[in-house]
Write a structure and sequence with these properties.
It is elongated and about 75 Å long. It has 2 domains: 174 residues, Flavin prenyltransferase-like (Rossmann fold), CATH 3.40.50; 208 residues, 3-Layer(aba) Sandwich (Rossmann fold), CATH 3.40.50. 33% of the residues lie in helices and 23% in strands. 43% of the residues are buried. It contains 13 helices and 21 strands. The protein has 397 residues and is α/β, with parallel strands linked by helices. The protein has an 8-stranded mixed beta sheet, with helices on both faces. A 5-stranded parallel beta sheet has the order 2-1-3-4-5, with helices on both faces. The two termini are 25 Å apart.
Length: 397
């Protein structure tokens, strides 16, 4: 995912410095070229050899270290970096950067870089809330530095409050979002629906389907990585929700319809991936389900047609994409749906094909527009999502 990308991690003198080793390891596993710069105080908490072993790169501490190839190290790394992450960041390093002090390898390299700088504070709650520290952070934000909010909890000093370094996964997610993809969807707002819906039969049972939400979540994640502002309307799905997207949780088809209706108007792209239950129980006025005593059958009624509503009420310039899950006559049925719903693209798949369908991590999709059909091979759902977005981008440019 991060092949050809370079991340520089700055590690300062905080007890949370040990977490930086796992951050480096996670990035290396994503094929990122990782370099670590430590302050002298950070060496008291973790040995530079740990980072050198993980990254296969020399860990820099001393500005005047002569044991390196002949170049100005702080300048070369500053130029090479695609992102600079300071984690953990003490009040001291924040104050230095805010004051323009460059008296060690870390602060000097930060001063020289034009790469985006992300700062993850980790310190005692009182230090974090100190007015001077808060003013320094606000000053750096004005200069374009990015801050990752610390967590709240039990701290190493035995106090409880804000100041914990976020989990390694959260910090790596920030790196991935910044450098993984070209931002060809920056400035675009995208609404994605994902997962199943549930239509209650009674307080215990419901009508639903086997959708895991993985395809819709993959689309939302890839759109976010490409710079889009993403709204994810999700049913009760089991897949991991992507970070950095606005999530609207729903249960029934009616809930999903209302969430889409209330949020679609200012969106540039709408992708309905959700497998909405087509029917719901028909209720009588006393809210009891109609049942026949002889066969206990439950009368059903159609749920709201979300895609049809979008096609009928589309705003100028919107691109609308739906999904068509078929078991036979996939192309014919999907083309009919494309025309009937008045949308721009249908992503069709045949549930009988191995590797396609609900709960797996792969999919086989044919992208259908009014005048084209593009069949994708068996791909991961993330790769499928990326190819779908590539196709959409080609139409909206």
């Amino acid at each position: 995912m991060l092949t050809g990308k370079c991340a520089v991690i700055g590690v300062t003198g905080s007890i949370a410095a040990y977490k930086a080793a796992n951050i480096a390891s996670m990035l290396v596993k994503l094929h990122c070229d990782v370099h670590v710069i430590m302050t002298q105080n950070a060496v008291n908490f973790i040995n530079p050899i740990a980072f050198e072993t993980i990254t296969n790169n020399k860990c820099l501490v001393d500005t005047f270290d002569r044991n390196f190839q002949f170049h100005v190290a702080h300048v070369s790394l500053a130029k090479k970096a695609d992102i600079f992450l300071i984690a953990p960041a003490t009040a001291n390093i924040i104050g230095k950067i805010a004051s323009g002090i460059a008296d060690d390898m870390l602060s000097t390299t930060i001063m020289a870089t034009k790469a985006p700088v992300y700062i993850a504070p980790a310190m005692n709650t009182a230090m974090y809330e100190n007015a001077i520290n808060q003013d320094n952070m606000e000053k750096l934000k004005r200069f374009g530095y990015h801050f990752i909010e610390p967590d709240s909890g039990f701290l190493a000093c035995r106090d409880s409050g804000k100041g914990k370094l976020p989990s390694e996964k959260v910090l790596v997610d920030y790196v991935i979002r910044e450098i993984a993809c070209e931002k060809d969807l920056k400035g675009k707002k995208i609404l994605v629906t994902a997962g199943p819906t549930q239509e209650a039969l009674d307080p215990v049972r419901y009508i639903s389907n086997h959708s895991s939400g993985k395809m819709g979540f993959a689309i939302a994640r890839q759109a976010m990585l490409r710079g889009a502002e993403v709204i994810l309307v999700k049913g009760p799905a089991t897949a991991e929700v992507p970070p950095f997207v606005k999530v609207i949780d729903v249960v029934s088809a009616k809930d999903m319809f209302e969430a889409v209706r209330d949020n679609y108007e200012d969106c540039d792209i709408i992708i309905k991936s959700a497998a909405v239950a087509d029917y719901r129980p028909a209720f009588v006025s006393d809210q009891k389900i109609k049942k026949k005593d002889d066969d206990m059958s439950i009368p059903l009624e159609r749920t709201q047609d979300i895609l049809g509503y979008l096609g009928e009420h589309r705003k100028e310039g919107q691109f609308i994409c739906g999904f068509s899950m078929e078991t036979e006559n996939m192309l014919e049925n999907s083309r009919a749906k494309l025309k009937k719903k008045n949308i721009d693209m249908i992503c069709a798949n045949n549930l009988k094909q191995n590797g396609a369908g609900f709960s797996g991590d792969t999919n086989i999709v044919t992208m259908i527009t009014a005048d084209s059909e593009t069949e994708l091979p068996l791909l991961s759902k993330d790769e499928t999502a990326s190819r779908i977005l590539d196709n959409i981008v080609s139409f909206i440019k």
